[in-house]
Amino acid sequence: METKVLPADQEGIAAAVKLLEAGEVVAFPTETVYGLGGTASRVDSIQAIFAAKGRPSTDPLILHLPDPDLARAVADGWVASPLPEAALVLAKIFWPGPLTLILQRGSGVHPEMTAKLETVAVRCPSHPAARKLLKSFGSPLAAPSANRFGRISPTDAAAVLQELGGRIPLILDGGPCSVGLESTVINLIKPIPEILRPGGITMEQISATLGRRPTLRSGFLQKEESQTVSSKKIGMDASREK
């Protein structure tokens, strides 16, 4: 398979949307790391993500929303109601941005995307190219980091090409990621919010917003999700396996 690299402009995004509508997957920039996106409601797209990454289907994917309004996500069937008050507060302050919320899965999410769990990880990215892609496509994307499973998350298009060249049809080049660190993941299913993965939003920011300190799960940090790489570093560091 030939992997094209196109600028994340109007023409490139149009090409990406066409591929996504056909059930293909594309790599695109976010403010955290580059993501590998596919249609969240199509099992063939979800399976294509797992295949391209060599990722076990027991590892859930993150749902990237085109709109920061959680109420709309509920109305569209991506997230189940009722929403925790903490989710509404955090989304209002930190979305669009590098924060992922664990909530109850809605009926519109294919079970394969969540490893058949009843929860779903959702976020709304702030990168302009990601926002334009999601808006143009008109539907959420399932998107883990755009690298082979167990390797370091890429923060520029060249690193994605080295990781997934020949495995995916298109990479949108939106330049280096501004945050360069994965999103913070917080579980809002439990009575006390629990941070599953530190990232672009700090514990202190979350504590100040909620008026209480979340718990921090120990032993959670996975190599794939805790390391990032640009094309300048990939040759040196990408051999680290999960």
Q: Write down the CATH class.
A: Alpha Beta
Rg over CA atoms, rounded to whole Å, is 17 Å
For the largest beta sheet, what order do the strands appear in spatially? 1-9-2-3-7-4-6-5-10-11-12
Kindly state the mean pLDDT as a whole number? 91
Annotated CATH topology = DHBP synthase
Total of helices: 9
Low-confidence stretches: 221-227, 229-242
Largest sheet: 11 strands, mixed
Q: Helicity, in percent?
A: 25-40%
CATH architecture: Alpha-Beta Complex
CATH superfamily: DHBP synthase
Cα distance spanning the termini = 26 Å
Number-wise, the strands total 13
The helix/strand order is EHEEHEHHEEHEEHEEEHEHEH
Give the number of domains: 1
Binned strand content: 15-25%
What would you call the shape?
globular
* Alpha-beta classification: alpha/beta
Would you mind describing this structure in some detail?
- The protein is α/β, with parallel strands linked by helices.
- It has one domain: DHBP synthase (Alpha-Beta Complex), CATH 3.90.870.
- The chain is built from 9 helices and 13 strands.
- The protein has an 11-stranded mixed beta sheet, with helices on both faces. It has a two-stranded parallel ribbon with strand order 8-13.
- It starts with a strand and ends in a 5-residue tail after the last helix.
- The C terminus is likely disordered.
Structural topology:
Layout: E1 4-7, H1 10-21, E2 26-28, E3 35-39, H2 43-53, E4 62-64, H3 70-75, H4 85-94, E5 99-104, E6 119-123, H5 128-137, E7 141-142, E8 153-154, H6 157-164, E9 170-173, E10 184-187, E11 194-197, H7 203-210, E12 215-216, H8 223-226, E13 228-229, H9 234-237
Parallel strand pairs: 1-9, 2-9, 4-6, 5-10, 8-13, 11-12
Antiparallel strand pairs: 2-3, 3-7, 4-7, 5-6, 10-11
